[in-house]
């Protein structure tokens, strides 16, 4: 049975409704935080703002704390409520989603650290255009994935799954051209390696957004679509 | 993973069908309707219960799950206010056919109730009672059957030191296992359990559940329970009944993670239906 974002607020126990609602709210707050961190880290790099980059680098704890708090909440719900069906799927999806979001936080941290290296080297590096493009792309994916979670919108989740393919292509093209630059100008190798690390981190953010979208499909439809080729999904989803 | 489909028809196919070959069918219930004094309790119910599996009937009070269970060994025969239509077959044989011996049917289809009901006699005599009625008289043979039944009911180790103590000296959980041993002693094919653990503490409940799982290699078990976690823990298949109708029947894993119908979802997750 498909569910909607109203489904979890119709229990006889109002306390249970509140507990599940709280999980969703906390997850969205965590999502908002890591999304902001990715955005700040990339902007810090593009604008040469080392203070913002340092702030992102040092704010990892807040995300980790949120993950622990949400996981504890999920454990409590599992132990006290023994949820079934869509309630169980919600708790599982939230646990999985926090793990992905925590890793997005780690990637933002990685971007901030490499941004600092690049800013401090004071040398204009190639690859900034690619970083800007890729970051816009994956941030949209992340935003859409979180929105699809909030709205239980599997159509949007499906779009995110499709986007991941083009992000992967964009990443491959960008790294290929950067390798050429490194061969042409060996002095640029150090800074281009930092750029490549940032691109890799952004590509990973896309992967985590992709995972989030899969969790949404599991939550709403009860289908586990991990490890399923998006092309294969396309023909059979009927969405 | 194979192709995934979201279409409604696909989801229905994947989640709701209890599919097994008809040769694995223990009970075959067909268009069963039953009424108490004209008031319908079961409406046109059709389902098959697989052999050597645990099948749970769940549903709110008055949904007909106990009525259905009692129908399976013809306990309703004792009540003339009950009218019935439809057919119940056990291993292919109509249980209401003229040539069916009801006492023999009830030996083959044993029943355990909510409250343990040991006879006011010793542990040994409780278990030997039905076996004696069947004509077994030799002490040695009786001893063997009693020990086997108590072993099967996971009670032997706790009572072997004093088999001649009164059954009333046992705890509630032990009494329930004694009743199960008494039923097993006559070698039934099916064991019907009507809320077998609802009067027991959590540890005794777990022992009964462990016993249910262990017994399915020997016989078919059908469990009626209000405790949804219990149905989820021990059964292979679950049927959800509501207002005398079979709403959804599915493998337990499917029913408790992704039920097909809204009514089932609302019931098992405790929502306002």
From TrEMBL, chain A:
UniProt superkingdom: Bacteria
Cell location: Cytoplasm
Location (main, coarse): cytoplasm
Keywords associated with the record: Cytoplasm, Phosphate transport, Transport
Domain PhoU: 28-114, 131-216
GO BP annotations, alphabetical order: intracellular phosphate ion homeostasis; negative regulation of phosphate metabolic process; phosphate ion transport
GO cellular component, one term: cytoplasm
InterPro entries per record: PhoU, PhoU-like_sf, PhoU_dom
One Pfam family hit: PhoU
Gene3D superfamilies recorded: Phosphate transport system protein phou homolog 2, domain 2 (1.20.58.220)
NCBIfam families: phoU_full
Similarity comment text for this entry: Belongs to the PhoU family.
Its job: Plays a role in the regulation of phosphate uptake.
Subunit structure: Homodimer.
Official protein name in the record: Phosphate-specific transport system accessory protein PhoU
């Amino acid at each position: 049975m498909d569910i909607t974002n109203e489904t979890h607020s119709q229990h006889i126990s109002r306390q249970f409704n509140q507990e599940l609602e709280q999980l969703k709210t906390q997850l969205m707050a965590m999502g908002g935080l890591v999304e902001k961190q990715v955005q700040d880290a990339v902007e810090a790099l593009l604008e040469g703002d080392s203070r913002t980059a340092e702030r992102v680098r040092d704010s990892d704890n807040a995300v980790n704390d949120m993950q622990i708090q949400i996981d504890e909440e999920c454990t409590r719900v599992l132990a006290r409520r023994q949820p079934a069906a869509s309630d169980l799927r919600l708790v599982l999806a939230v646990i999985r989603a926090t793990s992905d979001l925590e890793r997005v936080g780690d990637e933002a941290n990685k971007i901030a650290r490499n941004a600092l290296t690049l800013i401090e080297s004071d040398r204009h590096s190639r690859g900034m255009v690619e970083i800007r493009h890729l970051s816009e792309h994956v941030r949209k994916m992340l935003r859409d994935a979180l929105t699809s979670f909030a709205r239980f919108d599997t159509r949007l989740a499906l779009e995110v799954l499709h986007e991941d393919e083009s992000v992967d292509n964009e990443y491959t093209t960008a790294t290929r051209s950067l390798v050429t630059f490194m061969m042409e100008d060996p002095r640029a190798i150090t800074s281009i390696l930092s750029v490549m690390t940032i691109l890799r981190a952004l590509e990973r953010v896309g992967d985590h957004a992709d995972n989030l979208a899969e969790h949404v499909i599991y939550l709403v439809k009860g289908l586990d679509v991990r490890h399923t080729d998006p092309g294969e999904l396309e023909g059979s989803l009927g969405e | 993973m194979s192709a995934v489909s979201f279409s409604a028809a696909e989801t229905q196919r994947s989640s709701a069908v209890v599919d097994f070959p008809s040769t694995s069918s223990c009970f075959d219930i067909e268009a069963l309707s039953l009424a108490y004094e004209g008031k319908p309790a079961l409406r046109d119910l059709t389902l098959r219960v697989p052999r050597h599996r645990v099948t749970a009937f769940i549903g709110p009070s008055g949904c007909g799950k106990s009525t259905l269970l009692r129908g399976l060994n013809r306990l309703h025969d004792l009540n003339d206010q009950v009218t019935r239509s439809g057919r119940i077959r056990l291993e292919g044989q109509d249980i209401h056919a003229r040539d069916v011996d009801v006492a023999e049917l009830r030996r083959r289809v044993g029943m355990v109730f909510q409250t343990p009901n040991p006879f006011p006699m010793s542990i040994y005599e409780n278990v030997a009672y039905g076996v004696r009625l069947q004509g077994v008289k030799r002490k040695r043979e009786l001893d063997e059957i009693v020990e086997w039944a108590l072993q099967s009911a996971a009670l032997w180790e706790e009572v072997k030191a004093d088999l001649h103590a009164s059954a009333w000296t046992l705890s509630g959980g032990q009494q329930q296992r004694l009743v199960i041993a008494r039923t097993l002693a006559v070698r039934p094919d099916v064991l019907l359990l009507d809320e077998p653990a609802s009067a027991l503490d959590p540890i005794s409940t777990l022992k009964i559940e462990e016993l249910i799982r262990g017994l399915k290699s020997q016989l078919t078990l059908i469990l009626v329970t209000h405790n949804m976690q219990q149905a989820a823990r021990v059964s292979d298949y679950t049927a959800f009944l509501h207002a005398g109708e079979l709403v959804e029947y599915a493998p337990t894993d499917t029913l408790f993670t992704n039920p097909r119908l809204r009514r089932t979802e609302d019931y098992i997750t405790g929502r306002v239906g």
